[in-house]
Design a protein that fits this description.
Order of helices and strands: HHHHHHHHHHHHHHHHH
Number of helices: 17
Number of strands: 0
Helix content: over 70%
């Protein structure tokens, strides 16, 4: 292979990546890695290897990505410049927080990342701050996460290592603001998302619109925004499709016109029958997905009890307990409670897994709150 052919190979990899064809991009970057190794180009070898790892994870192949990344870290050593070392460690840290990687020393790894950034740029930069935000978010520390996101936003143009997408920063701040009940701030951050950036920015904008509508208990707007997240999904990223399905579940359950959520003909059940996840969802989505399934069973219990739909994501309008004579399907209360309890058991397992990894308890507390809502309904019919 000539140098011109190598440059053409890298160009084709970049074109495939920009077009969202992550499989093709990953394979081309692997070819570039092999070619640069043959040429003895250490910097190009590590860059191509890192880009291949990033594309494999974007193609929902995290195991392939982790293997490449570990290889890159092994080869980098002291011979890699500080910039490449920083980005390699950064990508590994992202993997450790979002996928099944046996790592728990997150604070130490973030401090190492900050040290690398300071040695190269003299500032930890927006990207390192974003990693701090991700860890705080994983721990349910929404106020602290928002404050760090605001700092990252202030440094988005430097100094230090920047972020791949300013829209991702704005989306994170929007969601943290909603967790804190700050609707106006969330709207302001949503307006900062630039949909012209790329397909990912358009998807996170639609997802934030779903969250805002759920916060407002606005079923029609939530459904419209959910349809946009569906349309913007990359078919090569099944967990993105699953996240869009989770949005759709919440939006559809808020609409009483859809009828009984436990019925096989309900749109949520129809969708789930055709869009079951392939095996276990990736770690970053596992808890939220199974929590959403528990919410689905809770919605079915409420319908049987004669109650109106309730948003359980933000729960700004708490459920109003029925009278025993309000029940639509009194003979199904116990059966639906059992299905709900089983779904909570599954969600709790994943809550414990994630809380243990990050040293917190907020996911388990969230499942406990859901259980109380279901048991409060059941108590009405057992009195």
């Amino acid at each position: 292979m000539t140098e011109d052919e190598f440059d053409d190979l890298v160009d084709r990899a970049e074109e495939a990546r920009d077009a969202g064809d992550m499989w093709t991009a990953a394979l081309l970057y692997e070819q570039a890695r092999d070619a640069s190794l043959a040429f003895g180009w250490q910097a190009d070898f590590l860059l191509a290897l890192r880009m291949a790892a990033q594309c494999w994870v974007d193609a929902a192949e995290p195991d392939r990505s982790v293997r490449l990344l570990l290889d890159a870290l092994h080869h980098s050593g002291s011979s890699a410049d500080g910039t490449e070392q920083y980005w390699l460690h950064n990508l590994f840290l992202e993997h450790a927080m979002h996928f099944d990687v046996a790592v728990t020393d997150f604070d130490e790894r973030i401090e190492h990342l900050a040290t690398l950034a300071l040695s190269v740029w003299g500032h930890e930069g927006a990207n390192t701050l974003t990693q701090r935000e991700s860890l705080l978010s994983c721990r349910g520390q929404w106020q602290e996460a928002l404050e760090v996101t605001e700092r990252a936003w202030a440094h988005r143009d430097g100094p230090g290592p920047g972020v791949a997408s300013n829209s991702s920063l704005a989306a994170a701040a929007c969601l943290h603001s909603l967790k804190l009940g700050r609707r106006a701030d969330a709207e302001r951050w949503k307006a900062a998302i630039c949909p012209s950036d790329n397909a990912w920015a358009r998807w996170v904008l639609a997802s934030c619109q779903v969250e805002l509508a759920l916060f407002d208990n606005d079923a029609a707007t939530a459904r419209a925004a959910s349809r946009r997240t569906d349309a913007l999904c990359n078919a090569q990223q099944p967990d993105q499709v699953l996240a869009a399905t989770a949005d759709a579940i919440a939006a559809l359950l808020l609409d009483p016109a859809e009828g009984d959520p436990a019925s096989p003909s309900h749109l949520v059940r129809v969708r789930l029958a055709h869009e079951k996840p392939r095996g276990t969802p990736m770690f970053w989505l596992r808890f939220s997905w199974h929590t959403r399934l528990a919410v689905l069973e809770l919605a079915g219990l409420r319908h049987a009890a004669g109650m109106l739909p309730v948003d359980d994501v933000y729960y700004r309008r708490p459920q109003v307990l029925p009278r025993p004579e309000d029940a639509r399907l009194p003979g199904e209360i116990d059966q639906r409670l059992a299905a709900f309890e089983h779904a909570c058991d599954t969600a709790l397992k994943h809550a414990q897994e994630a809380d243990t990894r990050f040293g917190c308890s907020w996911r388990q507390e969230e499942v406990a709150q859901l259980r109380r809502r279901g048991r409060d309904i059941a108590a009405v019919f057992r009195g």
